[in-house]
Amino acid sequence: MAGIYIHIPFCHSKCAYCDFFSTSGSNGRATFVESLSREWAMRRHELGDAPVRTIYLGGGTPSILSTDELNIIASLLPVSKLEEFTLEANPEDISIQRVKDMISIGINRISIGVQSLNDRELLAVGRRHTSQDAIEAIATIRKAGISNISADLIYGLPEQTADSWRESVQRLSECGITHLSAYALSYEPGTRLYSMLRAGKIKEASQELSEEMYNILCETMARQGFLHYEISNFAIPGMHSRHNSSYWDYTPYLGLGPGAHSFDGQVRRVNPSRLQSYNEAMMAGRIFYETEEETPVDRLNDIIITAMRTKEGLCMEKFRQAGGDFALTRLKRNANVFIKSGRIVCTDTSMYIPERYWLVSDAILRELLID
Predict the structure, then answer these.
(1) Which stretches make up the Radical SAM core domain (predicted)?
(2) In terms of domains, do 132 and 227 share one?
């Protein structure tokens, strides 16, 4: 199987924390949609004969596109045998008719950017919706006929407390979503929040508070019946993100649009994050992507990093097939100290990090990497 990711680089406005490639406003959307059609025609062969089972429209804010624009994009793609067709949306773009239009196109999953259910926190990071807008948008999506709904939350926001975070997680888990992605706020250079942090206008959440919030998240979602299947992701049984899971199990995927990444099973490619240059290249019939150079060791380390983020962990036999007995022996040697301390569990078939150590998994993974 294979997946397709399409990066929609348009937003109503830029959120204070966001460092994903996007541009404010809607100018140039028609040209961009034409460029997408040309890129798909040039690169569809990269997926070979693998059947496409998932499509993900991310961004940016894909829900900013009109129904006609979404129709054009969907008409280009192999949508007849999809298991999952996801569109990222903001609450302010949701209406009954809008969701019905999405369903008519083939979209069967919506990922909605909530980020917080506290209005003061939303205002602090430049979100355009209120907490009530988010709750009503989820209800509207369900009423219109889509029950597979994912929501995003961020912890460590300015003005956020453990109690306000607990309330956001609890309320959101009770409003009918089937999936939750929750991420720690990262202050990225070039964002407004980063500038505010450097200027002393806001304070970064302490490590202690971040750990408390992560524990609140895990405990609350478990009580609500959600499975913690990846470090940042929770799902009702059977409702995990099939598309995102492909990133963690090395399934090939094709990324279209400026800023999109691709992986054909052997080679990683990335489109530079430049909309005008992307459009110019597509109109001229030129390939726009750059190839990421990876050594065999780099590929093995990619497998380790992606697999060990998940509940299932790393399949020992697949890793042996990819790197041979020598690589497997090196991995076990690197993991030995963590196995003895209980921070890694290693069986005959798999190696994984227990959930209680996921928050510090980056430090563990650095020591696992093969050199």
Answers:
(1) 1-227
(2) yes
